[in-house]
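[Q] Does anyone have a clean structure-token version of this?
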Amino acid sequence: MKDEWLDSKMQVQARLFAGQQRYASNLIYGTPFSFPAAGDWRGVELRGLYLGVSGHKLMLGMERQDNVRVDQQILDLANPGHDRSISSPGSRTGAQDEWRIADALTATLGLRLD
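[A] Here you go.
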């Protein structure tokens, strides 16, 4: 979605997203092992761009992503007592500000929390 105001001097863009990843591998290290993994995530991104100052570009942005599912396993098929499982859902939040100071000089300030 993209909206513009003030004679194209201000642009706003928003994005919703979601995804998933599935992985499985069977390998032999002397004995057979299985390595299944699964991940699910969703998020939102909002970005504003201001072109009202001649020769400058001011961009402000924010992103939030929730990693709803992050599961990884190491399965020792010959000895299940050695199996390992990692489940670590989490989130990511970030913000960024970019300011074009001159044609060859841009300043960017960002912050991210995982």
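[Q] Thanks! Anything notable?
[A] Residues 2-113 form one domain.
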